[in-house]
Design goal:
Structural class: mainly alpha
Helix content: 55-70%
Distance between the termini: 55 Å
Order of helices and strands: HHHHHHHHHHHEE
Number of domains: 1
Strand order of the largest sheet: 1-2
Largest sheet: 2 strands, antiparallel
Strand content: under 5%
Length: 246
């Protein structure tokens, strides 16, 4: 039976992804899709985590993570609620969808297929999805070691934030940008399924998954919406920062 405390986190996770949605051209502000340019784009996008598209997800996700950690995680009643659904195949799929190799294969596959078919849209999507996944992997690894939160099942101290959830949500902005609202909502729903599956299996607290979803959206937005008014350059023995004002 569905309860309010079960549905609320699902609605929250969906809202985090929908908050930054905006229309416009699918083309990236950085059209260079070559593999050699990829490291440069990674560095260029780093200063853009606090673009306008990230204000709402950061505020809502940060507040929800803090409140849940402080007040609800001790009871962890959501996990038992979800187990009462008795839909284990659904949770198994959610766990599978959040695996890094699944999302990474899709991103690299899109990048490669786009190159082979000379389809710039597919190439740009694959490149941006791959960049989001690289950023998400680095971020979640650093935070897991820095925070050291014990998982609900007691297996280790890598509970915060949820790696599966950040992986599932970091590609959502790219899907919205390149494939439209319907595909974006569907991807967001899959990410929410992953987040709930991680809670149901006692792999994470709800706050871990909310933080993962929030960080994923922030990273994805920084990749696909980053304005090119800040440019970081790297070269042998030098690092440069260029600011452009329109």
């Amino acid at each position: 039976m569905l309860s309010g405390r079960t549905l609320l986190p699902a609605f929250l996770l969906v809202f985090l992804a929908l908050a930054p949605v905006r229309g416009g051209d699918w083309q990236s502000p950085d059209p260079d899709v070559s593999l050699g340019h990829f490291p440069t784009k990674l560095v260029d996008d780093l200063p853009h985590l606090f673009i306008p598209e990230n204000i709402a997800p950061l505020a809502i996700g940060g507040l929800a993570t803090s409140v849940d950690w402080a007040t609800l995680d001790g009871q962890n009643s959501l996990a038992s609620d979800l187990q009462n659904w008795k839909t284990q195949p659904l949770w198994n799929f959610g766990n599978f969808y959040g695996e890094g190799w699944v999302e990474g294969s899709a991103a690299l596959g899109s990048w490669g297929i786009g190159a082979l078919t000379d389809n710039l849209k597919v190439q740009e999507f694959g490149r941006d999805a791959a960049e989001s996944l690289v950023d998400a992997t680095v971020t979640v690894t650093v935070l897991k070691y820095a925070v050291g939160r014990e998982r609900p099942d007691g297996s280790n101290n890598f509970s915060f934030p949820s790696g599966h959830t950040i992986t599932a949500f970091c590609i959502v902005p790219a899907v919205f940008k390149y494939w439209g609202v319907q595909a974006g909502v569907e991807t967001c729903a899959l990410g929410t399924l992953t987040a709930l599956a991680r809670v149901e299996g006692y792999h994470h607290y709800l706050s871990d998954t909310i933080a993962g979803a929030t960080l994923g959206i922030l990273i994805g937005n920084a990749v696909v919406y980053a304005p090119k008014d800040v440019k970081v350059t790297l070269g042998p023995g030098e690092i440069g920062l260029q600011l452009a004002f329109n």
